[in-house]
Specification:
Blueprint (H helix, E strand, L loop, with lengths): L17 H18 L1 H17 L7 H49 L3 H5 L8 H43 L1 H48 L1 H6 L3 H32 L2 H19 L4 H15 L1
């Protein structure tokens, strides 16, 4: 199928115009600011914990007001960043997917009649053309409008959590850093496996759907030749593979979630190391606690 605008480069953002690139730029900045929520909040709370944990420090209303204002500033910054993130990415996702739908429909309408005659049965029906436009474009819109900004926000949270952790207690951060890697490895491994299984499930559902579509479109022929039981058997056989893949996907998801039990091991290790740092290296308890919390949240 020929594509209009063949000089465009391949890629997810191939239909992005200058205005869309500007929206994605500000949306990226908003995603980075959204990822700063936990690091900034915990950085402010580290000073609060240090003050409350110090016997000689006097906690007055002015002290409470000072840190309350800091938390308010963090909330305003993160709130504005999240608003810009959602607005810009949702807007550009709608614009780009609308352009994709239009180009797809133009490409279909430009085909010769012979193109539709040479296709397999049921592959060029009006239903499939419409469903392809809606299903695929919706998937791309969700990817651009939700998945990409969430990924940027999580990456921002990962890097800034560890940066603030190093600034507060570099000894504890270095000691607990391997646990962040231990959080990532199961998520990446099982996530890749779950994605492969999901793709196989989509193909399996497509096979079952084609059987049902052919049977419904030729329901009189099926009924005339008493082929109901045979059609049901073929449909059930196609769904059997889907059920097996679903069991594998559930097992992988369970193992991935179960591997998160290492959080308790990490907390125990950080509590032991943190107690040594506070008692023998005179580090502040609030800094040690927040550094350990940032390492955990960054890994998650």
């Amino acid at each position: 199928m020929e594509e209009s605008g063949g000089d465009k480069k391949d890629g997810l953002f191939r239909y992005a115009e200058g205005y869309d690139k500007l929206l994605m730029f500000f949306g990226t900045l908003g995603s980075i600011g959204d990822g700063l929520q936990i690091p900034l909040m915990m950085y402010v709370l580290s000073d609060v914990i240090n003050i409350y944990g110090n016997r000689d420090a006097k906690v007055t209303n002015s002290t409470v007001d000072k840190y309350s204002l800091r938390l308010l500033y963090v909330a305003i910054l993160v709130g504005l960043s999240a608003f810009v993130e959602g607005l810009c990415w949702a807007r550009t996702a709608e614009r780009q997917t609308s352009r994709m739908r239009l180009e797809y429909l133009k490409s279909v309408l430009k085909q010769d009649v012979a193109f539709f005659d040479t296709q397999e049965a049921g592959s060029s029906t009006t239903y499939q053309v419409v469903s392809t436009i809606s299903a695929d474009s919706n998937t791309i819109q969700i990817t651009i409008g939700e998945k990409i900004p969430n990924c940027i926000a999580y990456l921002s949270s990962f890097f800034f959590c560890h940066a603030f952790a190093f600034a507060l207690s570099w000894r504890l951060t270095l000691a607990a850093l391997p646990f962040s890697v231990m959080f990532l490895v199961p998520a990446l491994g099982f996530g890749k496996h779950m994605m492969d299984v999901a793709m196989a499930m989509v193909a399996s559902y497509g096979t079952a759907g084609s059987i049902a579509e052919q049977a419904i479109s030729s329901i009189r022929t099926v009924y005339s030749y008493v082929g109901e039981n045979q059609t049901l058997y073929q449909f059930s056989k196609a769904l059997q593979k889907t059920m097996e893949l679903g069991i594998k996907q559930g097992l992988a998801r369970g193992l991935m979630l179960g591997s998160m039990g290492i959080i308790y091991v990490s907390w125990a290790f950080q509590a032991w190391v943190g107690s040594l740092l506070v008692t023998k290296h005179n580090e502040k308890g609030g800094d040690v606690f927040v550094a350990g919390f940032n390492v955990l949240m960054g890994g998650l």
